[in-house]
Amino acid sequence: MLSCLEREQDDANLIVVPGAITRPSAALIETIQEVAAIRRHSALRPVKSKGRLPLTGYPDRPTIQLPRTVFEPKVSSESVDRALLLMDTLIKACTERGLSATVKDARLLISHDGSSVDVRISERIVTIVGSPKGFSQMDVLLNKHVTYRPTGELTIGVARLGNELKVKDKNGLPLERQLNNVLKRIYRGITETRVWFEHLHKLAAESAARAEIKKSEDAARKAAIEAAQRDAEELRQKRMDLAAEAMAWQQSQTILAYAAHLVQTATRDGRALSTDLQAWVDSISKIAKALDPTTRRLGQYSS
After folding, report:
1. Phi, psi for residue 87 in degrees, rounded to 5
2. Which regions of the chain does DSSP assign to beta strands (E)?
3. What are the tens digits of pLDDT across the range 60-73?
């Protein structure tokens, strides 16, 4: 927005405040109507309505309670017309420069390209402590006889990112001649807001990228652990299968050796092998051959 700032320094673009509001901007219509309605009832009371410009009038009574936060702008009944005129002129100037002005929750938002600032107007109020009979220290201690006197000195604040850029009435330099400076602060606030949110988006993108990398690394680490576990389980199963296979072979050889031992013992003295014993030897030999895994194992590697 450098070109915009340079444009506001050109005298040809000086914002001129008219003598009165002729065709109020849309953002001010409801506030103007409500101020007029209040005046018809002869008492200007605080104006707090959603959807209206944050512009509040004080009643003429000097005992009005001041707001506790600087972000709740107030102006006195004597300054309402001037404040409305200043804000109306500022809103129209913003609109002419391609900025949008909307009122949301009693906040005036000036926006451009998705970034916005909060524009407020307030009046400096002087606190006076002391009874009509004179100042007393007890008045200060007990917070008694406190009155508030409006000064007519207005301030336009441009709030962004928790801070506020202010343009104030000065001696010999009223706000009517400083609206271009207000626009400069609006441009600055919008730019800073955009840069800040771009920075936040960049940080969020970097955080998301880091999270994605970590997620990929965690997935790769988990896959490696699972692969190692599968390999270990496969090796353990192979060892168990090999041990079972070797044990089956050993059992078959033991059975065959035992059968041969029986036949040798039975025929040692030249005696003939009995039919029943021969049948039993034949049966356990079949069992031994069934247990022997040699044939099956060799069959897996035959060409």
Report:
1. -70, -40
2. 57-58, 75-76, 100-104, 107-112, 115-129, 146-160, 163-168
3. 333 333 332 223 44
CA angle 276, 279, 284 (to 5 degrees): 125
As a residue count, the chain comes to: 303
Q: What whole-number distance in Å separates Cα of residue 171 and Cα of residue 261?
A: 129
Q: Which helix (H) or strand (E) holds 190?
A: helix 179-266
What is the C-alpha separation between 159 and 207, in angstroms, rounded? 29
CA 73: distance to chain centroid? 29
Query: Residue 158 forms beta bridges with which residues?
Result: 119, 165
pLDDT of residue 126: 79
Q: Say which residue the tokens 């009832």 belong to.
A: 41
Give the separation between CA 91 and CA 99, rounded to whole angstroms. 9
Rg (CA), the chain: 48
Handedness of CA 86, 88, 91, 93 (dihedral sign): negative
Of the segments 71-80, 96-105, 192-201, which one has the largest average pLDDT value? 192-201
Asked if residues 31 and 98 have their Cβ atoms less than 8 Å apart, the reply is no
Tokens of 15: 């914002």
Element (H, E) at 273: none
Return phi, psi of residue 168, to 5°.
-120, 155
- Token representation of residue 207: 């955080």
Backbone angles phi, psi at 278, to 5 degrees: -65, -40
Phi, psi of 71 (to 5 degrees): -90, 15
From CA 175, how far away is CA 181, in angstroms rounded?
9
Beta-strand relationship, 75-76 and 115-129: unpaired
87-118 pLDDT per residue, tens: 999 999 999 999 998 887 667 889 998 899 99
